[in-house]
Design goal:
- The protein has 122 residues and is mainly beta.
- The chain has one domain.
- 14% of the residues lie in helices and 47% in strands.
- It has one helix and nine strands; from the N terminus they run H-E-E-E-E-E-E-E-E-E.
- It has a six-stranded antiparallel beta barrel. A two-stranded antiparallel sheet has the order 3-4.
- The termini are far apart.
Length: 122
């Protein structure tokens, strides 16, 4: 439960984003020969990631085919993993790390929203 006004406002914003711009997608994970899937509500994020070059200079580069954001509590299978897939209509996207960064990151200070990076596979 949020402990300060900023966290409370962030949680409200996350809930509004989900209800206003969210889209029902299927999140899938292959484990051995078994695929586990669940339906979650996610929304598209900016597909650019901020990265630093070896000299420490910051550059914005196109990073993925698509980023998805969703409430962390909505994904019952836990933390997103490399190779997980999101089916959005007829399109399928696979989670992939971006330029040495993890496959996902928190999108808000309160750690309410997860952002995953994905490339289109079909």
């Amino acid at each position: 439960m949020p402990t300060n006004r900023f966290a409370t406002a962030g949680a409200r914003l996350a809930t509004r984003l989900k209800s206003r711009i969210g889209n029902s997608v299927t999140y899938s994970r292959l484990s051995g020969t078994t695929t586990t899937s669940e339906t979650i509500t996610a929304w598209r994020g900016n597909e650019q990631e901020q990265v630093s070059n070896p000299l420490g200079q910051v550059a914005r580069v196109d990073s993925t085919d698509r980023d998805y954001l969703f409430l962390a509590t909505d994904l019952a299978m836990g933390e997103p993993r490399k190779g997980d897939r999101i089916t959005d209509g007829a399109e399928v996207f696979e989670l992939k790390p971006v330029q040495g960064n993890p496959v996902w990151r928190w999108s808000d200070e309160s750690r309410t929203i997860r952002r995953v990076h994905a490339i289109q596979v079909t």
